[in-house]
């Protein structure tokens, strides 16, 4: 039994000056790899899926949230380190409420392009509703104040964000009753170069003013040394996704360049799980990425 409540996990992280990684997976192999890496590092970890992707209207084959929840829960159950389950960033209130009833440990409602999408007053009301419902089931809620810029790596375009205003954040937390809050202090969604400039003055002001754990999204955009520093300044969780996927794409590209799959037994390429299996390569890429990231966030040997 390795499930842990978000409350306990965040407290432990703040007390021990590390940040817990939320590593967003997309299938069985990537989820297993995240937990394997956390076990190797003896670190607590948060696993989960992206609600906006699961609910994507253009998703070709509809998938049920319950299937993902069952998979995540069983993997957490069998882990040797503390694991919590997050439904990350769903823009669908009904899905978030369902996740809060069906066994996630934390849920997050987040409209895409938040600051254009929903006025603050309305967002406050939605988050308050979600927090009330989730708390009845002992489920934590993550909210977001401000908005991360969003980089489109396919087109190179940048959607401007909005830095978190400490006063607005303080009031939002108080009015909604959320348990953790994602802040925008220079971090950027979907940007892969690890080169954003974190505004530490802004982060310091927020960590002093806000008395719930702070979260940084867009972990891929943040340099390793900045992750270390942020973890020592009241950031209790950092979210990663894009960087893991890039690492997997790179090994797959390399695999197909180095191996003539036409001359291979398809069972060796897919399903046997031995060294030549392309899904093993996928897992190894994720494991390496997650291990390095956990180290950067000072999470090594923090399992409890
Ligand atoms: Zn995010």
UniProtKB/TrEMBL annotation:
<feature type="binding site">
    <location>
        <position position="217"/>
    </location>
    <ligand>
        <name>Zn(2+) 1</name>
    </ligand>
</feature>
<dbReference type="InterPro" id="IPR050246">
    <property type="entry name" value="Class_II_FBP_aldolase"/>
</dbReference>
<dbReference type="InterPro" id="IPR000771">
    <property type="entry name" value="FBA_II"/>
</dbReference>
<feature type="binding site">
    <location>
        <position position="189"/>
    </location>
    <ligand>
        <name>Zn(2+) 1</name>
    </ligand>
</feature>
<keyword id="KW-0862">Zinc</keyword>
<protein>
    <submittedName>
        <fullName>Fructose-bisphosphate aldolase, class II</fullName>
    </submittedName>
</protein>
<dbReference type="GO" id="GO:0016832">
    <property type="term" value="F:aldehyde-lyase activity"/>
</dbReference>
<feature type="binding site">
    <location>
        <position position="144"/>
    </location>
    <ligand>
        <name>Zn(2+) 2</name>
    </ligand>
</feature>
<dbReference type="GO" id="GO:0005975">
    <property type="term" value="P:carbohydrate metabolic process"/>
</dbReference>
<dbReference type="InterPro" id="IPR013785">
    <property type="entry name" value="Aldolase_TIM"/>
</dbReference>
<dbReference type="GO" id="GO:0008270">
    <property type="term" value="F:zinc ion binding"/>
</dbReference>
<keyword id="KW-0479">Metal-binding</keyword>
<dbReference type="Pfam" id="PF01116">
    <property type="entry name" value="F_bP_aldolase"/>
</dbReference>
């Amino acid at each position: 039994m390795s499930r842990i409540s978000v409350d306990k996990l965040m407290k432990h992280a703040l007390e021990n000056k590390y940040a817990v990684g939320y590593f967003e997976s997309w299938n069985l192999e990537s989820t297993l790899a995240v937990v394997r890496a956390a076990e190797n590092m003896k670190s607590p970890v948060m696993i989960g899926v992206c609600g906006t992707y699961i609910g994507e209207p253009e998703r070709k084959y509809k998938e049920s949230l319950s299937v993902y929840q069952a998979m995540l829960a069983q993997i957490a159950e069998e882990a040797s380190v503390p694991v919590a389950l997050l439904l990350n960033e769903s823009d669908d209130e009904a899905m978030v409420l369902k996740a809060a009833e069906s066994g996630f440990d934390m849920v997050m409602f987040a409209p895409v392009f938040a600051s254009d999408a929903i006025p603050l007053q309305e967002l406050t009301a939605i988050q308050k509703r979600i927090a009330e419902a989730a708390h009845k089931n002992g489920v934590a809620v993550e909210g977001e104040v401000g908005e991360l810029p969003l980089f489109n790596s396919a087109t190179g375009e940048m959607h401007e964000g909005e830095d978190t205003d400490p006063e607005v954040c303080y009031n939002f937390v108080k009015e909604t009753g959320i348990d953790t809050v994602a802040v925008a202090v220079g971090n950027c969604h979907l940007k892969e170069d690890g080169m954003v400039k974190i505004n530490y003055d802004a982060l310091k002001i927020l960590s002093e003013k806000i008395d719930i754990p702070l979260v940084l999204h867009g972990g891929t955009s943040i340099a390793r040394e900045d992750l270390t520093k942020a973890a020592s300044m009241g950031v209790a969780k950092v979210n990663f996704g894009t960087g893991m996927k890039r690492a997997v794409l790179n090994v797959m590209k390399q695999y197909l360049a180095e191996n003539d799959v036409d001359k291979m037994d398809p069972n060796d390429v897919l399903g046997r799980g031995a060294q030549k299996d392309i899904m093993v390569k996928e897992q190894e890429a994720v494991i390496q990425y997650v291990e390095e990231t956990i180290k950067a966030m000072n999470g090594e040997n923090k399992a409890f």
